[in-house]
Amino acid sequence: MTTSAAAHTGSEGAMREGGRVTDRLVGANKRYASAFTDPGMDAQPVLHVAVVACMDARLDLHAALGLELGDCHTIRNAGGVVTDDVIRSLTISQRKLGTRSIVLIHHTNCGLESLTEDFRNELELEVGQRPAWAVESFRDVDQDVRQSMQRVRTSPFLLHTDDVRGFVFDVRTGLLREVDAA
After folding, report:
1. pLDDT tens digits for 51-86?
2. What string of H, E and C letters represents the secondary structure of 103-171?
3. CA–CA gap between residue 150 and residue 131 (Å, rounded)
């Protein structure tokens, strides 16, 4: 499988030199904008759903879920973990932009499975300041999905917590596997 970056540049090393990746993205945006027409949408997602997922580059959420532009709100971070900032985004999504359903997607072979909270100690030693945030590493992806579902369901800020479902995306097969909340 060839990534889009490798296909366009021919080498990973070339992408890292002097902002070429950003230049490529800006050029792609200019081409996109030249044919862009305002779709006439507002910020409210058509399907009234918010998807919280890992930032992993292997997850093409729109393709994997059959979504189109305007269908959902997408919130991504390392691990797809439900943090205070994710609750903030979900609260705005629900209270101001009409979402009612929440889909949580973690995945197999996640980088957070190989980290520990020691990462924060390493950063503190390197830069002289301890991060205020937790790494949120985990060993059991199913249990982490359950924890994320629980954080959503117990948040006092969210209006709609009856349609919260959690999944693990298999990076080898592309299939979702639902995790029971139990």
Report:
1. 999 999 999 999 999 999 999 999 999 999 999 999
2. EEEEECCCHHHCCCCHHHHHHHHHHCCCCCCCCCCCCCHHHHHHHHHHHHHCCCCCCCCCCEEEEEECC
3. 25
